[in-house]
Design goal:
The protein has a two-stranded parallel ribbon. The protein has one domain: Rossmann fold (3-Layer(aba) Sandwich). About 25% of the residues lie in helices and about 20% in strands. The chain is flat and about 35 Å long. About 0% of the residues are buried. The longest helix is centred in the C-terminal third of the chain and has 9 residues. The protein is an alpha+beta fold. It starts with a helix and ends with a helix.
């Protein structure tokens, strides 16, 4: 949780394939699990953003 405290995060967002694995961090911030969006890749989005 040091990164959560370091960045003073209010919310930690993870894909629902990680559901339940970060619940213990809810004492530091809100933990949200989002359903996977079909045909959207985080790796692709990050690569796109970095190369803009």
């Amino acid at each position: 949780p040091s990164y959560i405290q370091h960045y003073n995060a209010d919310v930690l967002v993870m894909g629902d394939d990680w559901e339940g694995k970060f619940n213990d961090l809810d004492r530091f911030c809100e933990v949200v699990y989002l359903k996977r969006t079909e045909n959207i890749s985080t790796s692709y989005l990050l690569d796109y953003i970095v190369n803009q």
